[in-house]
Amino acid sequence: MRTPAAQRATRTAILLALMLFAVLPLVSMFTTALAAPGSSPQGISWPADPHWHNFRDAWSAANFLALFRSSALIVLGVVPATVAMATAAGYALAQLKVPGGKAIYAVLLVGLTLPVEALITPLYYNIQSLGLLGTRSAIVLPLIGLLMPFGVFWMRAHFLGAETALTEAAKIDGAGTWQTFRRIHLPLATPALSALSVLFFLATWNQYLLPLVLVDDPTKRTVAGGLGAFQGQYGTDTVLLCAGSLLIILPSLVIFLLFQRNFVKALLQGAVK
To answer: What are the transmembrane regions (predicted)?
Structure first.
């Protein structure tokens, strides 16, 4: 029989191993980004003469200012709309008696299994027929459709765990369906909404394939497309590639750190009554 101290030590060791597994690649990228331009450093070693200007050079080489602006516009077009529709659909499938609700949910679950790569060709011709090829709408509209199945699945799971007593009390007080949703269930869903928004932000911000195929203008793509600026005909500038990658990752880290409490709370919601 293991003692509580031994169990705590084991859990701590596992958490430290997982932390190192996640942090070491970032540390390696950071030290590589500070190496001499054009070099190919290996492993993790702090350079004798850190070249901090590599971040400025990477920013200029990939035109990250235009890419960050484009990514922000795409995120603003995708995340609020998808979260709003997924929340409404998840609530309807979980709390309301929607005709054919089970069939609709089954179709959405099928959508979770479809890879983007299998849909890219029909998406291209559909967007072309709509006259949106080469515009940011060619990225926003498909992303909304691709993210909806997971969003509905996430929010439906949350609303299924909601207390039925709250809904019954609202009905007794004369509240309608919309009032019950807006004044009772929606405020309680803040952790789930925050976590879903973070997940959708990451999926949109790091989107690479759709912008590459559907948009010709590099300044209308997401920041992930900027990494191609460091790939030449005869090789890749590893130093600037790492510096550019860190610039792309930074907003994602900031967003996650800001909403980490709600993210963890949403994951644990329903585990303890």
So the answer is: 59-92, 104-125, 137-155, 186-205, 238-259
Residue pLDDT, tens place only, 70-110 = 999 999 999 999 999 999 999 999 888 888 888 988 988 88
Percent of the chain with pLDDT over 70: 93
List C-alpha distances in Å: 75 to 80, 140, 221, 222, 244.
Answer: 8, 8, 11, 9, 20
Evaluate if residue 235 carries a pLDDT over 80.
Answer: no
CATH number of 55-271: 1.10.3720.10
pLDDT band at 264 (very low <50, low <70, confident <90, very high): confident
Q: Give the closest residue to 218 by CA, choosing from 66, 36, 30.
A: 66
Amino acid letter for position 91: Y
Phi-psi region of 131 (alpha: psi -120 to 50; beta: other; left: phi over 0): left
Beta-carbon contacts of 52 under 8 Å, excluding residues fewer than 6 positions away, are 34
Q: 128-146 burial, b if ≥16 CB within 10 A, otherwise e?
A: eeeebbebbbbbbbbbbeb
What is the DSSP code string of 202-216? HHHHT--HHHHHH--
CA distance 49 to 161: 56
The residue ranges of every structural domain in the chain are 55-271
Residue 187 to residue 14: CA distance in whole angstroms:
36
